[in-house]
Amino acid sequence: MPDHEFAVWAPLPELVRLDVDGTLHPMTRSDDGWWRATVDAPADARYGFVLDDDDTVLPDPRSPRQPDGVHERSQLWDPSSVTWTDSDWAGKSIEGAVIYELHVGTFTPGGTFDSAVEKLDYLVDLGVDLVELMPVNSFSGTHGWGYDGVLWYSVQESYGGPDGLARLVDACHARGLGILIDAVFNHLGPSGNYLPKYGPYLTEANTGWGQGVNVSDADSDEVRQYILDCALRWMRDFHADGLRLDAVHALADHTAFHILEEMSSDTDALAEQLGRPLSLIAESDLNDPRLITPRDRGGYGMTAQWDDDIHHAIHTAVSGERQGYYSDFGSLESLANTLKHGYFHAGTYSSFRHRRHGRPLDTATIPATRLLAYTSDHDQVGNRAVGDRPSQNLTYGQLAVKAALVLTSPYTAMLFMGEEWASSSPFQFFTSHPEPELARATAEGRKAEFAEHGWDADEIPDPQDPETFQRSKLKWDEVDTGDHARMLQLYRALIELRHREPDLADPWLDHMTVDYDEEQRWIALHRGTLTIVCNLGDDSVTVPVRGEGVLSSADAAVGDSTTLPKQSFAVVRTS
Fold first, then answer.
1. Site annotated as Transition state stabilizer: where (predicted)?
2. Residue 522, φ and ψ in degrees, nearest 5
3. 249 among annotated binding-site residues
4. Which one of 7, 148, 177, 455 is CB 3.0 to 4.6 Å from 385, fit for a cystine?
5. Residue 310 assigned ligand-binding role
6. Which of 180, 168, 158 is nearest to 98 (CA)?
7. CA atoms within 13 A on the CB side of 216
8. Which residues of the chain are under the pLDDT cut of 50?
């Protein structure tokens, strides 16, 4: 058996011993809090660490594999053992692309990486450029959203473990698809988090999902490195083309060199080393353009960020919903303002927050492709009380208008799995915590949260009920039937148009003008020689846009003006 060096950062315990396949070995501590031991071990050895006088064998904080779950021993896994076929992969930037967000467990009946591979040709035919996986790091239980991960370096075993993920990435690249991984570095899940036993990984601050991660308090240097090494691991060892970073506003960094700036710098260095582009997409609630401002201009240098304002502006204008954080949106004026400027709240008062919010985006220097536009994502569907999709509440025409506003916009576009055929499946919040008390608390907390907002508690699905998970799986037999097939055809046409037309690739918001009529409920986006005209109203409307019809969702009459049936759009070539 070959020698293997085991190492763990554990500044808190006085004694750390290594367990390899049931045999204990002493470890030596260095001044920096790292413990090391070199031991003969097979390539698939199960191992863990025993701290002080507690005989419990704990998993490795940097565990590469957890075959028996997050509470058990880790297992060695060598990334160099993977047989890759993507040596010719040149990479793919996310800017201006069409991204397809999916949850591995509900994307297919099988719910694994290998079963997802079987649907990649479908995604190629749809026309998307990159796949974005919701978190695949190890979490407690067999199914869940993945945002309660506790072992960030290992891959969820029920999905297929690290080898399954490598096969999926390789298969994506073989088909010309990029792949992004959703990474959660702002909090840890409630089950299986043993990091505080090793060192000061957490702070007393509460993120709303649990204790904050120590990225700037005392002894935070190694915690920061733990995060940075994990981020690079997904892109280096698993060949991912980038990361989506969950809720970065919950990373409370008070240092002069923010961890996001450091991650951006490290990612650019890795991209140069690998010879292909790597992207970082931030999810942020701050409307802060510093995230996507280049580092040499004082920003953090993220490639892009999710833009909920665009979602809210489109959804409320089409659907009429106004509750909660939708309260400031809904008018065509707010829709036009958001599409034109990127943020709706840009140093303006937010009635939901009861304060000013956001900061203006410099549209002359920051391209629109650094913001992601979408009509749905896992949050905007799954965090509704019953996980209902827009397709369960809106008409074909309304869904078509929403799709057109996103896919013909200057922004990087994102779809949420199944929206392209108006899937009838909800996407509900589901968990599989093995601890009865945690399971009960999760279910009761979910009901209480939405009951406070006026929902009937009896309607709130139990996250722990296996049927909640099963209901959320896509129904692939819908794809070729009725309005589902009609919607899919429209999405394919919109994506093909987006890729084909140079005017739709123009990333500069200053080059786009927007007209609208609040009373007649129409809005028009003028993009070079193309104008996208949308009728959000319930009556036919004639809009003063002349030209030749290129694509429409209904029988639009295009000539000296454009007449649209209710709830429809048309793309018009004006010159």
1. 379
2. -125, 155
3. yes
4. 455
5. yes
6. 180
7. 14
8. none
246 among known catalytic residues: yes
Cα–Cα distance measured from residue 89 to residue 333, given in angstroms and rounded to the nearest whole number: 44
482: phi > 0 → left, psi -120 to 50 → alpha, else beta; which?
Answer: left
248 labelled as ligand-binding?
yes
Q: Which of 217, 283, 288, 419 is catalytic?
A: 283
* 217 marked among binding-site residues: no
Please count the other Cβ atoms lying within 10 Å of the Cβ belonging to residue 42.
12
Neighbours of 222 (CB within 10 A): 17
Burial 424-456 (b: 16+ CB within 10 A, else e): ebbbbbbbbbeeeebbeebbeebbeebeeeeee
The 10s digit of each residue's pLDDT in 59-92 is 999 999 999 999 999 999 999 999 999 999 999 9
Question: Contact, 568 vs 401, CB < 8 A?
Answer: yes
- Candidate list 101, 132, 246, 506, residue with the active-site label: 246
By the 10 Å C-beta count (0-12 exposed, 13-18 middle, 19+ buried), 163 is classed as middle
Question: Residue 51 carries which DSSP code?
Answer: E
Q: CATH homologous superfamily of domain 98-190+223-500?
A: Glycosidases (3.20.20.80)
- For the chain, the structural domain boundaries read 98-190+223-500, 510-573
Is the distance from CB of 213 to CB of 185 less than 8 angstroms?
Answer: yes
Cα 217 to chain centroid distance, Å, stands at: 28
Q: Do domains 98-190+223-500 and 510-573 have the same CATH topology?
A: no
pLDDT single digits (tens) 230-263: 999 999 999 999 999 999 999 999 999 999 999 9
For domain 510-573, give the CATH superfamily: Golgi alpha-mannosidase II (2.60.40.1180)
> Which tokens in the block code for residue 399?
């869904």
